[in-house]
Amino acid sequence: MKVVLLNTSEHTGGAAIAANRLMKALIDIGIEAKTLTLNKQTDDENVVSIQSSFFKRQLALLNFLWERWVIFLHNRFSRENLFRVSIANTGFDISRHPLVKDADIIHIHWINQGFLSLRTLKKLASSGKPIVWTMHDMWPITGICHYSWGCEKFTNECGGCPLLHSQKHKDLSYRIFKEKKFIAQSGIHFVAVSSWLKNMSLQSVLTKNLKISVIPNVIDIQIFHPSNKTSARKNLSLPLDKKIVLMGALRIDDPVKGFVFLKEAMRLVYVKNQDAVLVLFGNTKQQDVLNNISFPIIQMGFIKDTSTIAQLYAAADVNIVPSYYETFGQTITESMACGCPSVTFNNSGQTDIIDHQINGYLAKYQDSEDLAKGILWCFDNYKLLSTEARKKVENSYSEDVVGKKYIRLYNSLIR
After folding, report:
1. What is the pTM of this model?
2. Collapsing DSSP states into helix, strand and coil, what is residue 409?
3. Is the distance from CB of 320 to CB of 344 less than 8 angstroms?
4. DSSP per residue, 223-247
5. Domains of the chain (ranges, CATH numbers)
6. Are 259 and 247 in contact (CB under 8 A)?
7. How many CB atoms lie within 10 A of CB 122?
8. What single-letter DSSP state applies at residue 134?
9. Tens-digit pLDDT profile for residues 213-232
10. pLDDT band at 285, cuts 50/70/90?
């Protein structure tokens, strides 16, 4: 069986990491899997970039800029929400690419920001090949947004988009939603990475009548594994005598990541336990989010090396994911694999992962006080939580477990 996975980037972003891990899991099980990407970042021979010439590299840049310009124009020349939406108005036609032509299964992941256009997606859908589309956010089921932020217009027909501050019904979101209606008749088999995302998908007119499976993201439990806490802290130059609260994200200051809730929760925690220190890893472009901090904080910056990230989890006493939404919760499974319990809200994809007060803590949604309570509770119950967290990951998210679920799905589509 030959499978081609499609994703904009090889490694940047949660979807890229998930797709890359899945590719490796499939290869380990014996599947001939390769990834076709816009941005190749390693020398992995199983990953092929569409940017094979100087011309295509320039075209990729123009595609990216053109899409953002159209959004910028329709948002009345405001940069606000510029990257919270995508319109797939331009991209590469990969329908005749050798990897696509030879594939038994086309597996779509995250294809925005100039990689694939809606025109190309429509062409792939009409190719006659089985197509699986793993949703890593809400974009496949909405007009243009990656997260709906409580807006329910996607359930029927987008228009008057709040993220564009639009008062017009037939705005950009309306037009793109209309273009996406081919999805409803496409026969694409969608995969939601959580039960929450499947429930959202069943509300959208684009996907509610299609087949939707729930298969979580895979994690490499050989890289992410428990290790000695003291040694990890020494290697990372972290304090040995503190209670470390960890938060990591590609962008700490991305509003969807909910740092505002953790900031208040840590203030409450520090009042009760002055050994607590917050450790952050990831980019923080808007430093004002760190203003008025009343507790100790250590910034590790952006960390690319996965073994270093695994050591961070091992060094921590608790991992916090205070997001408004999580379609899955990749940092949660990573931390749990390293024996570090997580605290998060009880609202979206992460509720599949954490069993409340068994392997972590599910706090009331947008409740910083309960978030703080969860942090303190995990301090007191670390040992038991650590064991149960690792067990959950081994049983539910390992390469072998998730890879075999996808193979069963692939086989059901090509028979």
Report:
1. 0.93
2. helix
3. yes
4. TS----HHHHHHHTT--SSSEEEEE
5. 2-218+399-414 (3.40.50.2000), 229-396 (3.40.50.2000)
6. yes
7. 16
8. E
9. 999 999 999 999 999 999 99
10. confident
